[in-house]
DNA sequence: TTTTCTTGTGAGACCGGTCTCAAAAGGCAA
DNA sequence: TTGCCTTTTGAGACCGGTCTCACAAGAAAA
C-alpha cells in the first residue's frame, strides 16, 4: 500500500475559498463558535469534507492559550504501580477529551525538573507529578499552571493531592507481624535518603516514605520493640547491589524473621533473594508487601499484600486536576484513599530462636 | 508554600524591549539561529534571565511545522509488555529531545482511529502504532507523517516495522511440547478474530497472531498431529467469560495436556484457572507462555517462557522513527528481533491416558 | 414608512514564535 | 578617501487558527 507523501495541509482559508465565504465564517463553523446560517454552515462543511480539512490543534492552542493536554511525570512507567495509575489518569482524561503527555523521571530530581520544563514549554494545561524527592521542590512551587500530586504529598505545597493512608497501612501490616510474634522486623524500601537516617523519621520529606516508616515504628513501639529504626533499609532499588544488600541482610546472624516491603518490585527481589538463601516463607521468614501486583497471588506461598487502590489513585488525581482546569477554585483538596490488607499465606509465627 | 497565580507569559518582544534590540535580534539569540554579535547576545540573554523568559514551544512549532513530539498508540499500557516497550521508546526519545504523547487503544480499532486523529491534530512529527486489527488499516495508510509499527507487522503497509520472530518462536516452543510427547496442545490467545477461523491461518491479518499460529501449526504438522486448528482458542482477553472459557477447556474430557499462551496476562489467567481446577503443572499439564513477565520466574513451578526483547523492541522502533524524522529516506525497514526460550519447570511429559 | 433590534457576515488584528529581505555597519584593499 | 564585500541588525510577513468589531440585511416595533 502506497503511503501519502507530505500533505500540503488544508487550512480554514482554503475551505473558505472553496465554500466562497470569508475566512472568519469558515472558521466559525469549523471551530464551532459564533452564529452561522444553516445554509452556509452546510456549504462550509461540505467544502471541508471535499478538501479533507483537519484542524491544526497547535494553531488553535496558540490563540486560545489552552493546549488540551496535561503532563504526567512519574517515577517509572515500567513499575506496574505507575502503569496502572497512568491507566487511570488517561481513562479519565480521554473522557474529557484531554490527552496525556507522559514523562519518566526515573526518580531523579534533575530529570523531573527537565521534564516539567519541557511539558510547560509545550503549554500543557495542567500537570500531575509524583515528586521524586521532596527536599528539592522549588521547581514545583513555581509552576504556574494547575498542579496535582500523585501518591506523594508535599506538606509545603498546598495543591490537590491524592495519596493512600500509608501510615495506617504500614501500621496494620506491621502489627499483623508483631502479633504473629515477630520482633526482628525489617522495612525495605527502594527510596533513597538525601541525608543520613538517624531514626528521625519525621524529617523524611517524601510523604509516602515518611508515613510508612512512621506507621512501621508506631507498631514496633506498640509491641515494645527497641531499636526498630536500625531495621529500616533504604535504597534497595533496581541496581545490582540492591540484590546483594538483601542477601547480606538475609544471611546476617540475627536476620529479620519478617520483612515489610515498600513496593512490589522490591518485594519480588526480596522473594528471589529469600529463595536463593534457601529460606522458606513463611516458616523461616514472613513477608508482606505494598501493592497487590499480579505475581503476589501465584507464588508458593502467595504473598500477603497491602492492596492500594492504584487505578482509583490515578483516576482521582486526574479528576481533581481536570475539575481545576474547568475553573474550579475551591481550596486544594488532599484525598487519602483507604487500603486493605489481603491476607494470603506469607505470614507465619516467628522463627526466632 | 504559596503558588504563583497566572503568569502573564514573557515573550520575545518583551525581552527585545528590555534589551533594547529588535524583536528579530532577540529571537535570533533566544532561538539559537542566525548570527548575532557577542555583546548583543549577552545583553539579550541577561534580559531574558531578568524577565524569566520561557519559550513557548507551541508558537515555535507553529512556524517550524515540527512539534518535537511523537505519538505512541498501544493496546494497553497496563500490560507489562507495552509498558516496557513504551519505556524503551521514551528512553530513546528523550535522548533526542523528543517527547512522547501516549494513547491507549484498548485494542479497539475505533479508539485507535480517534487517538490517531487527535495525535495528528496535535501535529506530532511521527507515530508509533501497535495496530489493534489489521482488517481495518485505511486510517493507517493515509497517515501523512512518518509511521512505524511496533510488534505487529502489516504486510500491506510498507513502513518501518519492528517485530519479533513470532513464527519461529511459536514453532520452537510447540516443538518443545511435542518432543515431550504432547499431542493435545492448545494455543490460547487474547486476540479476537474478525471473521470465523477455519484453520485458514494465513488469512489472519494481524501478523503477530498469524505468525504464531502458523508456527504452532508447523510444529503440530511436524509431529503429525491432526486437527490442531481446533485447539486454537481466541478472545481469551480480560473479560469475565475468558476465565470461564479456560475452566471449560481444562475440565473438558480430552483437555489439552499442554498449553501455549500468547501473552503473560492470558498465561496468568490460565495459571490461576489450572490451579483452581486442581491440576498440577507440569504433571497434569504443561505451560509455556510468550513474554518473560516477572511473575513467571517465581511461581511453583516457574514457567518456561518465550523471552521477547521487549525493551529493545521499543528502542528499535523509536530509533527507526527518529532516524526517519531526521530526513532519512531509505526504504522502510522491517526488523525482526530474535527471541529465546527460557526453560524453567513448567514442561513435563504428556499425561495423556 | 421609518426606526430599532437582531442576526449573519467580512475585514483584519492577534497569539508568539521563525524567517526573508533589505538596509546599516564594519573591514579591508585600492 | 572611496568602493566593495561581509557581517549584523531591523522591519515586517507568515504559520493557522480565534476573536473583536463594524457593517449589512432582514425582522420587529413605532
Topology of this structure?
Two copies of one chain form a homodimer.
Chain A: H1 12-19, H2 23-31, H3 38-51, H4 57-64, E1 69-74, H5 80-95, E2 99-104, H6 109-121, E3 126-129, H7 138-141, E4 147-150, E5 160-164, H8 166-179, E6 185-188, H9 207-222, E7 232-233, H10 240-251, E8 258-261, H11 264-276, E9 286-290, E10 304-307, H12 310-325, E11 334-337, E12 340-342
Helix pairs in contact in A: 1-2, 1-3, 2-3, 5-12, 8-9, 10-11
Chain A binds a DNA duplex (30 and 30 nucleotides) through residues 9, 11-13, 21-25, 27-28, 30-31, 33-37, 40, 55-65.
Spell out the key features of this protein.
homodimer, 353 residues, alpha/beta, 434 Repressor (Amino-terminal Domain), Rossmann fold, 6-stranded parallel sheet, 6-stranded mixed sheet, DNA-binding
What is the annotated CATH architecture of the largest domain in chain A? 3-Layer(aba) Sandwich
The share of residues in extended strands of chain A comes to 5-15%
Helix % of chain A is 40-55%
CATH topology of the largest domain in chain A: Rossmann fold
Fourth CATH level, the homologous superfamily of the largest domain in chain A = Response regulator
Distance between the termini of chain A: 73 Å
Mean pLDDT of chain A equals 89
Rg calc of chain A: 26 Å
Structural class of chain A: alpha/beta
Q: In which order are the strands of the major sheet of chain A placed?
A: 2-1-3-4-5-11
The CATH class assignment of the largest domain in chain A is Alpha Beta
